[in-house]
Amino acid sequence: MNVYDGWRIAAMLEHHGMQRTDEISDADIIILNTCAVRAKATDKVFSALGRIRRAKKKSALFGIVGCVARESGTDAFRRIPDLNFVLGPQSYHKLPQILENPDAKLFNIDLGGLEKFDELPQMEKSPTVAYIPIQEGCNHVCTYCIVPYTRGREISRKFDDCVRDTIHAANTGAIEICFLGQNVNGYKYTDENGTTYRLSDLIKQAAKIESVKRIRFTSSYPTEMTDDLIEMFATEPKLLPFLNMPIQSGSQNVLTRMNRPYSLELYTDIIHKLRIARPDIQISSDFIVGFPGESDKDFEQTMRIAEQIKYINSYSFKYSPRPHTAAALMPDQIPENIKAERLAKLDTYLNEVQREFNISCIDKTFECLLEGPDKTGQHLIYRTPYMQQCIVTKSDNTPAPILTKITITAANKASLRGKFAD
Ligand code: 5AD
Ligand code: SF4
């Protein structure tokens, strides 16, 4: 979501005649697009702001947008008095005001609108992987999560607007469409005629576009994984066989206290149905360890579920108490050393499964999408249908094919190596 927001902000500044620079000391405006999901991310923002303040031109405008802006509010100006603007995740379309009136402080952390999607100019050229936000905010209120506070209640965008943005992205260079939302599979929009559209309808529309070759979506909530969506994995070949569906914990008790009221049976049943619909599907998850009150037994249950599902490419985090959340006030906060121990154990296992999966890909051939050259310029980086990074040696002067079959020749935990298939 933040990557997408960043693109829109950059496109808007280009529209105002600005150019990108990598040098802070050259920049006329510096915008930190921020994440507040864990305390570490927020802390980094304020230390970065301190560095930027010292390195920037005196006349340069600087400020923050996104969830840290929303979370810290006017306190951000108190901590860094020379900040020029603080704009929440639904207000960054107001940035041009600071260009028109650089001497005034700009502050807006309001929620509830989708204006940012429509008020900003469309991007003239889409990246090959186009993110299409279809929904903003979240109604789930997991007790650890700051997102319902920073991004607000869930709003699904109009179906026609999502389709229009998808067509625009395809017409301007997108090959892969990634539908985005905090609770993307809960997408639901009812139009004036009373017709209700779901994510499966958006996938069908995107699949009809000839130049769109790959479709995916992130991030999914288990109870919203309805049969029409599962069916898509069986019937729509453009939908990639890869799904991020966070479980967070393998303990029913912990899930209840997280306010994620689904049963583990329901979760494993969905995975079972998905594997029947698409036998080559792979699943990834997010995990939180050390949630308040998590016992050794609870944590062992998380290990068991990881062993049962065999996730590839997961993200695991130590629980981080966040302002405005219920879990931050719960008793039985887990000491940092225990959180670290559990995280190391889970990560070791998840990494091993990922390595094994990558190795099992050797000698297989996948259709892969070009991401670009690597840092040395001697290799090309492709993405497999499972989002693995695959490195291919560049062939002399022939242009690199954008979507092509690649045979995997070697693998480790982090990436694959491959060669163009004959
Ligand atoms: N502490 C640790 N991890 C968190 N996440 C969300 N809130 C917290 C928190 N307070 C993780 C969840 C979510 C991912 C985006 O971030 O695993 O799926
Ligand atoms: Fe946060 Fe995701 Fe839970 Fe929504 S579903 S409250 S975004 S963790």
Relative strand content: 15-25%
How many beta-strand segments?
20
Largest sheet: number of strands, sense, barrel closure: 5 strands, mixed, barrel
Please report the distance between the alpha carbons of the first and last residues.
37 Å
Cα-based radius of gyration, to the nearest Å: 22 Å
Helix content: 25-40%
The total count of helices amounts to: 14
Structural class: alpha/beta
Q: What oligomeric assembly is this protein in?
A: single chain
User: If you average the pLDDT, what whole number results?
Assistant: 95
Bound molecules: 5'-deoxyadenosine, iron/sulfur cluster
Quick one: CATH class of the domain at 122-240?
Alpha Beta
How would you sum up this structure, described in words?
By secondary structure, the protein is α/β, with parallel strands linked by helices. Among the domains are: 2-108, Methylthiotransferase, N-terminal domain (Rossmann fold, 3-Layer(aba) Sandwich), CATH 3.40.50.12160; 122-240, Transcription Regulator spoIIAA; 365-420, OB fold (Dihydrolipoamide Acetyltransferase, E2P) (Beta Barrel), CATH 2.40.50. 35% of the residues lie in helices and 22% in strands. Strands 16-17-18-20-19 form a 5-stranded mixed barrel. It has a 4-stranded parallel β-sheet with strand order 1-2-3-4, sandwiched between helices. A 3-stranded parallel β-sheet has the order 5-8-11, with helices on one face. Helix 10 (227-235) packs parallel to helix 12. It is globular, with a radius of gyration of 22 Å. It starts with a helix and ends with a strand. Iron/sulfur cluster (SF4) binds next to helix 7.
